[in-house]
Amino acid sequence: MMETAPTVSSMTGFARVAVAVNAQTTYVLTVKSVNHRFLDLHLRLPAGLDGLEIELRRVLKEHMLRGHVELTLQVDRTTAARGGYNRELVAAYVAAFQAAAEEFELQGQPDLNVILRVPGVLGSEARTDDADSPLLAASVLEHIVPLLGELKAMRQREGAALAGILHATLDRLAAATAGVAKLRPDVERRCQQRLTERLEAAVGADINQQRLLEEVALLVERSDVSEEIARMETHIQHFRDVLNTGGETGKKLDFLLQEMNREANTLLSKTAGVAGAGIRITELGLAMKAEVEKAREQIMNLE
Question: Does the structural domain 156-299 have CATH classification 3.30.70?
């Protein structure tokens, strides 16, 4: 049996199911989620289902890692209505009619049509049967796990799309890093030349050449970007590994992007003011920072 490759998940998803518990009771169960730093649960249930809410929270915590999750349960119970009339009100009306007729010596009988039009005489007794609440709770708990499966499937599809965007971003970061590595020798030569000229101008042509070379070598070493290049390459590979591993990736990737941004800043500070290839490295460093910011916007929605 072939194993499914691990995938990253977005925190954006939606799932809905409509269920008939019996002839009188149906419900709609909806779950949706958006990005959040932690697992933030919001449940909207009809009154009287406190026990069900506790169970639903437990299931959600078992299946969800991060995100603002909203669960809504809408219940529709068919009411059984019995037609009837208000006997006490009708009796009072008839008694009043008879008393008035006797007192004023009038003839006649009460008109039933008139009596039935008196407000409150006719009505129905609407009965809402909540005796099926245990059946309702059992049905909701039966359907919540498959529903969360649908939600997670949608989140994984969204995550796969984001992973594709992030891999493309990493490709551009890798290309920029390779460009810097290619230009590094020329930048070092130009940096050494510039430092030599400045030192000679400061102390004159009689400076000890050996001492000059030592000072220049020390300053060039401080402006060397080989370590930044190596660390950037490592971060890029680590970023790819996390994407390919799947699971809870958002926080790990955010940390890696912070490190990448730090390397780009250091690279820019070390090559500032160097002419020729140094200008191109500055452009590549700024491009790195731009790609890091784009990636940071994308991973905000990763679980």
Answer: no
